[in-house]
Design goal:
21 strands, alpha+beta, binds ligand BES, globular, 5-stranded mixed sheet, 4-stranded mixed sheet, binds zinc ion, 801 residues, 47% helix
Length: 801
């Protein structure tokens, strides 16, 4: 083709609706009468628009789309834009000419300039509810007739969040309408197609009294995430997939801000740390992690980018930047960025420049942020004191979980910044000082000396866990921090306490702290009443338990957990009451108590299950997850079959997913195998849920090896189910094996993946293998001390009683 000339291309294209979960695909569901109904829907991101129609399927090639769909008159169709007109289709044969065709042609308005991956259309027989925003945008929630009554919560949230975003971004929502539709077969959680957002049913539908607080919060969070993309991603789009993090990191951060504004009592910003920052710190402490910005070419490489680094680390560094610039400067930066680039494409640098502009060029945002996006990992900030003096040294060095493992070299692969970061380091002291200093990535300022009051007893770094780094202190300081927690924990925010726990356990796992530090720190939990510290402590203790369950460590950790949760267990009780946070906490604490074998908890949980099964009572929405699980674990075939029947028959997606997870709780390996085999039969378990079945079975100690065998045995069949260049296979595999902790298992893993190509799933497997190595070292070096240390505490408590 000659440059500067305009060419028109016409292509005739034939395509059969596929049964996969991407491209233009088929989904089915049963109505109230048990009749199977069919719908056709799309999922294109990242590279499946080309499956549905011929196109230049790359994000930087934006175009205006004119979409026309011919379909049966009894169905409705939806696309990005509102319908322009619906007209009769002329009949093809005599019969049709006489009575009129059964088909109509739906023509949609021309779209705005947009990327192919955001195009969508759905043909179905669903119902609609709708409402207008203050700014006159029509918001509709669309779901199957039998489920439309569960759509109201989503509609209210979507209206409010849209209005708030219009204000926050300073830009009205650019389309005349917004549809949110619940698709029965859906691979991801949701997809932000411009004006027609598709959702998995559990991410959109909510049934009061049945959906738990966490289920409901999930709906709000997913809506806030996808709506954020309508501006950040859809109106302004990354130039190429290597900057995917711009989309997903930003939306993952905005999820919390968006919901926080509508539901201020839900303490979303506290939850941000436990859901986003902590999992990212965990993954990014591996040498097999990757920088936020990476070169990608192949579709399988692109799919593999939808990971914790793009989402959670991306969100974390935006959060850190907001703190650094101030809320209004960041908001202004976003507004400048969006206004300047609307209907166009950008690279990461454009966002940093807009932020600098928002500060009147007073801050070098790019200089700081490049150290976070162009190299992987993050720093460990080390506070040390010169003697007992007033002089403190604050320095940084890369934090690696594998640390001194044989063959690891912490400077590989090479980084443009030699694994030094521009870090805003905040800290406070027992004397109430609160300060922030900036460490740099250049040789002469990677560490700093500060002079503080001599009378200082302790120092606590990374105030409220806003910074993407970990902190270590001299032993005496750890001791003083632990004393402080035990005497008066309220001097620290919940986020600070959670982060102390997390740092202590993680440093211990990396071999940088003895087991006694996290154990003695944890004892303060008997006085803890906040959600986030509890969640993180239990996450670590459960992981210890999983690693040590081959020896006496498992039951020792159980006894320790029982001891820690006893107070809060009694305090919260079993009845639905209290704030959103207390409800979330109740579920976390009660289920931990049951898992740890606290007798009262197990008995009550069993009793509730029996009462529900005998139809004597309705279960509290917050308890269903672990009560069903306990019922299945403690029960036999009858209980399992009962739950399976409920799983098949319920029409409430939130409940369905609780049933499905409970089915993985059986202790009987034959039952578990029967369950695993159902994943090969689409009529019993939808392909979208196969991942959940395999990983939740693997999390059950009785099921781990079965799941691992199933995954290998049916490798080819599972692989065919997912059209994403094996990213899902990698994630499922990683989910199954990452608690392995023996050299024997490691050998099997390495052997299998040597013989099986993993494409886009390779990185996830490499990361799991690195984790296994860390696990093996922990078991070898620390299993005994864990048993010793926790026994001291538990016995001391027994002697007191
Ligand atoms: N753009 C993604 C959907 C997606 C995921 C497309 C993976 C292709 C591959 C969407 O915005 C998204 O991130 N959805 C999340 C939910 C969100 C609340 C984290 C998801 O599907 O898990
Ligand atoms: Zn997203």
């Amino acid at each position: 083709m000659k440059p500067g000339k305009t060419y028109s291309i016409r292509l005739k294209f034939m395509y059969n609706l596929t049964e996969g979960l991407d491209g233009f695909y088929l989904s089915t569901y049963k109505d109230k009468d048990g009749q199977v109904r069919t719908l056709a829907t799309t999922h294109f991101e990242p590279t499946s628009a080309r499956k549905a129609f011929p196109c230049f399927d790359e994000p930087q090639l934006k175009a205006k789309f004119l979409i026309t769909i011919t379909h049966s008159r009894s169905l409705q169709s939806f696309s990005n834009m509102p319908k322009k007109e619906e007209s009769d289709v002329r009949g093809k044969n005599d019969q049709e000419m006489r009575v009129g065709s059964t088909k109509v042609r739906s023509e949609f308005m021309e779209s705005l300039e947009m990327s192919t991956y955001l195009v969508a259309f759905v043909v179905c027989d669903f119902d609609i509810i709708e409402k207008k925003t203050d700014s006159n945008v029509t918001i509709r929630v669309i779901a199957a007739h039998d489920k439309i009554s569960q759509a109201k919560f989503a509609l209210d949230q979507a209206v409010q969040i849209t209005q708030n975003y219009e204000r926050y971004f300073g830009i009205p929502f650019p389309l005349p309408k917004q549809d949110l539709i619940a698709i029965p077969d859906f691979e991801a959680g949701a997809m932000e197609n411009w004006g027609l957002i598709t959702y998995r049913e559990t991410a959109l539908l909510n049934e009061e009294g049945v959906s738990s607080s966490l289920d409901t919060q999930w709906v709000a969070v997913v809506i806030a995430h996808e709506l954020a993309h309508q501006w950040f991603g859809n109106l302004v789009t990354m130039q190429w997939w290597n900057d995917l993090w711009l989309n997903e990191g930003f939306a993952s951060w905005m999820e919390y801000k968006g919901v926080d504004e509508v539901e201020p009592d839900w303490k979303m910003m506290d939850q941000f740390w436990i859901n986003e920052v902590e999992p990212a710190l965990d993954l990014d402490s591996l040498q097999s992690s990757h920088p936020i910005s990476v070169q990608v070419q192949e579709p399988s490489e692109i799919s593999a980018l939808f990971d914790y680094i793009s989402y959670r680390k991306g969100a974390s560094i935006i959060h850190m930047l907001e703190q650094f610039l101030g809320e209004e400067h960041l908001r202004k930066g976003l507004e400048i960025y969006l206004k300047k680039n609307k209907f166009k494409n950008t690279v990461t640098k454009d966002l940093w420049n807009a932020c600098t502009e928002a500060t009147n060029n007073t801050k070098d945002v790019m200089g700081m942020m490049n150290t976070w996006t162009l190299q992987m990992g993050y720093p460990l900030i080390i506070f040390s004191r010169i003697g007992n003096s007033s002089v403190w040294n604050i320095t940084q060095s890369r934090f690696l979980l594998a640390g001194q493992l044989n063959g690891t070299n912490s400077s590989l692969p090479a980084s443009p910044y030699n694994y030094k970061w521009n870090v805003p380091v905040s800290f406070k002291t027992n004397l109430g000082h609160s300060r922030e200093i900036l460490l740099g990535s250049k040789d002469n300022d990677t560490s700093k000396v500060v002079t503080l009051d001599e009378k200082i007893k302790w120092i606590k770094g990374n105030t409220d866990g806003v910074g993407f780094y970990r902190v270590n202190y001299p032993t005496q300081i750890w001791t003083m921090l632990i004393n402080q927690l035990n005497t008066d924990l309220s001097v620290f925010s919940g986020a600070d306490r959670a982060q102390l726990i997390d740092d202590a356990f993680s440093l211990c796992m990396a071999g940088l702290l003895p087991v006694s530090v996290p154990v003695s720190l944890s004892t303060y939990l008997v006085k803890e009443t906040d959600l986030v510290p509890w969640k993180i402590a239990l996450r670590h203790l459960k992981s210890w338990k999983a690693l040590l369950s081959d020896g006496p460590g498992g039951s020792a950790v159980d006894a320790f957990i029982s001891f820690l949760v006893e107070n809060i267990y009694k305090k919260l009780g079993w009845f639905e009451a209290g704030t959103h946070e207390q409800r979330l906490l109740r579920t976390v604490v009660l289920s931990a108590a049951v898992d740890a074998g606290l007798k009262d908890a197990v008995d009550r949980s069993k009793q509730i299950f029996t009462d529900v099964m005998d139809n004597q009572s309705k279960i509290s929405s917050e308890l269903q997850g672990f009560v069903y699980c306990t019922g299945v674990r403690e029960g036999g075939e009858e209980e399992w079959n009962w739950i399976f029947k409920k799983y098949i028959s319920t029409n409430i997606p939130a409940e369905k997913s609780h049933f499905l997870k409970a089915l993985a709780c059986s202790k009987d390996i034959f039952t578990l195998q029967r369950f695993l085999d159902k994943t090969l039969d689409k009529s019993q378990i939808r392909h979208q849920d196969v991942k959940s079945v395999l990983t939740s079975t693997a999390m059950n100690p009785a099921g781990t090896l079965l799941a691992w065998r199933q995954y290998r045995k049916f490798w080819d069949r599972y692989n065919k189910m997912f059209g994403d260049g094996m990213t899902n296979m990698g994630n499922i595999g990683a989910g199954i094996i990452s608690t392995f902790s023996s050299s024997f298992d490691l050998e099997q893993v390495e052997d299998f993946f040597e013989k099986h190509e993993t494409g886009g799933g390779k990185r996830a497997i490499d990361q799991a293998v690195e984790k296994i190595k860390v696990n093996i070292r922990f078991v070898e070096l620390s299993a005994e001390s864990v048993v010793g240390e926790v026994n001291i505490i538990v016995n001391r408590r027994k002697n007191l009683a």
